[in-house]
Amino acid sequence: MLTAASRNIPSWTTAVPVLALLALVPTWGTKPPGAILAVVGVLLGGAVFAAVHHAEVIAHRVGEPFGSLVLAVAVTIIEVGLIVTLMISGGSETDTLARDTVFAAVMITCNGILGLSILVAALRRHVAEFNAEGTASALATVATLATLTLVLPRFTESAPGPEFTSGQLAFAAVAALALYALFVVVQTVRHRDYFLPDEAEADPEAHAAPPTNRETITSFALLAVALVAVVGLAKVESPAIGDAVSAIGAPASAVGVAIALVVLLPETIAAVRNAARGRVQTSFNLAFGSAMASIGLTIPAIAVASIWLDGALVLGLGSTEMVLLAITTVVGALTVLPGRATLQEGGVHLVLFAAFLVLAISP
């Protein structure tokens, strides 16, 4: 959440999205030299942070758990835009990009963000406390979505390889969207109290005055500008990302990991910041909400986009990734069900995240 002093829109969060959008105009559809790519990269990173800042302003206006939902959806829109633009221009080399990016998002949120949040909260307060009912429901939804969309394609027989048929893809897309929509209703209407931070009373920033209507509308407009700039500049940077991945000898799937890391970095910072204030439930809402949005919104969007995309849409995970997903689900359940976690649980999740990164570079 933003304090009353910091919620006013800083000048850089206004200037950076506009500059990024202006930089997109001359670089779109070109292959700029290294110096220009460096500037584009800086503007891209700044636009991502600006987008999340404006999402936080809007989130503070609508309150929790709507605030976490706004952040998760904003980040997912960036992710979907990046995936679609890269798949349109990448040809057969991007057949697995959607799968790699979505799986990376799940590993980053359910191990990286979750582990860091627990670690920071436990270091400050010895034990990280949160609502077991809401968090367990979120984890169950993430596990189901991941299994339906990323595991089942490996075992279906109607289409060759780890792919869905058109009918199966349509079902997976509708099921993913329906599960995500159902969770949003449960989180924001039916059982909203399951997702509210118990520590809010001890956090003075929770009582900061919300942004005015004018500030909220301004942030909404700048958020839209930042999202457009991020998607466009990522398209400009995509050849350089691919070259960097090849230069270190990593497989093509590492491109999806790089995309997810860039997109989720501001979300990670927001979650850790909340954990440091004792708002562990908000950190978990951000982590699991991003994982659910990544699957529940990306897969339907990619399913629609596949109508116009050339080549196959490979969604099925390999055996190594399925093992990582399975142990993440089991460990996650053991972590969230007690409603309390210590440094040990945080360390376990961070080790799983480190294993994911190592295997992504050297499978």
UniProtKB/TrEMBL annotation:
Stored InterPro entries = Alkaline_pH_Ca-Antiporter, NaCa_Exmemb
Specify the superkingdom. Answer: Bacteria
> Where is this protein localized, as stated in its record?
Membrane
Keywords attached to this Swiss-Prot or TrEMBL record, sorted alphabetically, are: Membrane, Transmembrane, Transmembrane helix
Q: Which residues form the Sodium/calcium exchanger membrane region domain?
A: 35-188, 219-361
Q: How does it sit in the membrane?
A: Multi-pass membrane protein
Alphabetical list of Pfam families matching this protein: Na_Ca_ex
Could you list the residue ranges that cross the membrane? Answer: 12-29, 35-54, 66-90, 102-123, 135-155, 167-186, 217-236, 248-272, 284-308, 314-334, 346-362
Q: Does the keyword Transmembrane helix apply?
A: yes
Q: Which species is this UniProt entry from?
A: Svornostia abyssi
Record flagged with keyword Cytoplasm: no
Q: What is this protein called?
A: Sodium/calcium exchanger membrane region domain-containing protein
